[in-house]
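Kindly inspect this chain:
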Amino acid sequence: MAFRMHPMFTGLALMVSLAAEAQLHRHIVSFRDKRATTLSLSQPSAFLTAKALDRRRRSNIAIDSTDLPVCQAYLDTLASIRNVRVLNASRWLNQAAIQTTDAVALARIRALPFVRSLEAIAPVAPVGPADPDPAVLDELELTREARSRGTLATGGYYNYGNSLGQVRIHEGDFLHDLGFRGEGMTIAVLDAGFQGYLSNRAFDSLRRAGRILGTWDFVAGDASVDEDNAHGANCLSILAANLPGVMVGTAPAASYWLFRTEDVASEYPVEEHFWAVGAERADSLGADMISSSLGYTDFDQAAFDHSYAQLDGNTTMVTRAADMAARKGMIVCNSAGNSGTSAWKYLGAPADGDSVLAVGAVDVNGSVAPFSSYGPSADGQVKPDVASVGLRTSLVAPGGQAAQGNGTSYSNPNIAGLLACLWQAFPEFGNMDLIDALRRSASRFANPDDRVGHGIPNLRKAYDDLLRRRQVRLAQAILKDDFIKAFPSPFDQRLNIYYRSPASGGRPVFELVDGAGRTVLRHQATAAPGTLLMLDFPGVEVLPKGLWMLRYADGERAGVIRLMK
């Protein structure tokens, strides 16, 4: 988990002794191919929902073999072997998790022609929910409810109560006041459980509106997540709480899938497999985003521990799955980790993914939280990507009480919700466009470091950036193969000029000439080579009605465009 404190890595390879393997009764079966599938890439609606297909169409993402589920015939064969239980399967990694204590069954599986490998990965899961070890959880304390109706708790549209500071540090209230509060966005939350979400008053509006779309427990294999660990419910409150005057989350109008992929009773790589399967479920159901406050470096058996060198964005099971989720068009937000004060100070997987938005922690004043994990990733990527409030983060505890918590687990959903609101405002952009705009808006974009990465994002700046990009796209669509367009015609109070400069750049001159050939208005611009200018010609509102000509020259090209006012 990202909320575990990690000791220094051992540097051991991912392998276990025969003696240790005898105690590990959950295994990963990797398959050679998907040849036995009865499904077809030409009929993707058989395994992807309409929302998932729509996301791929919007982002021009092709359906490929990674979208095909694991061959059912392979899973049926495994299930038919005596004493073998198939837990679940990952389409992206083309593997299945199984459980067995039978050495003969394992030998039979290894001999199957479609099996590439078989690896012991975890002991049998404990029966029933386990009490979490407080030493490995984010710090949590109850607080007084903020009921002030004054400026201390009031943004604009929302009376944020305790959460005002963690929203306002990003100017997230700017988006909310514009009407972007997460409507129409779907976020899958992957975590350790969502204790009390069915009764927590913070989620009353979420439940009444039917915006908890569904749940699944990939650890226990059932749909019940209300009785499990509270960590996911805490994170969900930072996203979705709607208690005016007490706390309002960063995406209170979004819809949510709640997936338990983490087992707090133990720490084994099988949880990385569960994370992958949860991410795939989110993809196939059409979720727009994943918010995950989980991370992996060390395990209960040191032989499984990840070395720093393995945090290269390409190696661990969970990171490969997270990057694949991004390839499918989703935004993946993940906590960076809480190891900043330990001997192991680095981030955990999947925060090392090159397409994963890794979130570090600061307080509401922007000071780095000491526990926030260090970057960079082993391959030199700037990590964390950005930072949000993870020190004394306001949240709502499972009993409905106002609380504060410490951890990058809590900084992550704070920024994930705001990113969902930003995407709501600009649905025509892809996932990596949104992440790029968020990074560029951050306080240290020009000089990132290994504590907060690109820094603290500003959602007003990100909004303005994407608005400018939208205008550029519009201009490019209007220009097509031309290098200049003037519109509208007839014009009245405004005359717009879209102009693409030549390769040499220069200082193009634009003149408005009346019917008698007299230059009435003149405007000179500066253009870098090959760039697009979007000009609002100044002063046209005072011109009389009639025929006008726009004369232009840039040193290489000259011409006239006839216009009416």
About this structure: Residues 2-20, 128-137, 146-152 have pLDDT under 50 and may be disordered. Residues 459-479 form the longest helix (21 residues).
